[in-house]
Amino acid sequence: MKRTTDPEPLSTYDSSWPWSTTVCGARGIIVPPRSSVGYPTVTPNSPAAAALGPRSRRRSPIGRRNIEATGGVRVVMTTLGIVGAGHIGSTVARLAVDAGVDVVLANSRGPETLADLVADLGPRARAGTATDAASAGDLVVLTVPLKALGDLPADAFDGQVVLDTGNYYPQRDGRIPDLDDGSSTASELTARTLPGARVVKVFNNIFFEHLGALARPEAPAGSDERSVLAIAGDDTAAKQAATELLDTIGYDVVDAGPLAEGWRFQPDTPAYGLPYDGSSDGTWSGATAKRVGAQELRDALTAATRG
To answer: At 101, phi and psi to the nearest 5?
Structure first.
């Protein structure tokens, strides 16, 4: 990325990108009716059905599952909690509401400071506290600086699938020995800070304007029109939840493995930002966004080295 100014310290719950300029504007996306193809099917006597219990509607690790009369199960993503309303959080919120998902946004400064953003997002969005967003969401996007993790209401995230967009920037977060020596990763630190959460690392390696510009919710999964994003996590069901949300907003997924492998798409690796940029001079914007396919991203992840 071409950095035209020195980075300034970010306020609590602000963007994961320390060098950003503008928040992407509204995008008009027409989403066709979604079929049930790609959603898991559970037969009435299967272990999965037993795990869901006898009631027709109950909370699950991947949103709310509706058991249909045929015995099939379709995942319905109804509400996304977003803690952190900076560039990445705002962009994910826009993609979610455009895809028909309600969002509850929170920041460190209070719900009233999000009035303009909520008004711009429309009736599917509302503001709340971090506890509100963590509790209301079928999934929760956590997009805060590492230095702000200790300010979060950790208990509110218990049992939740938390999509962690965080990156370690020492100039912003201060020095963290476990991250400096490579014995841990940023999302493992998040998981330790929120021990009841089921953390999946995602959204951390793409510039927010590229994220907004490359979404293709109208394109079929696996098509040449879609870009891929990397995920990492220790919980299989949580990664499936992340995959389903990304499909909803228009992305395919490359699974990089457990949280311990999240370093492969952290800052200063080949998979961090650069694959999505098609500019000739390193000046990133939505107009420079470049589609990234699965093999290209896998190659970038494989090429990563730990210094």
So the answer is: -105, 135
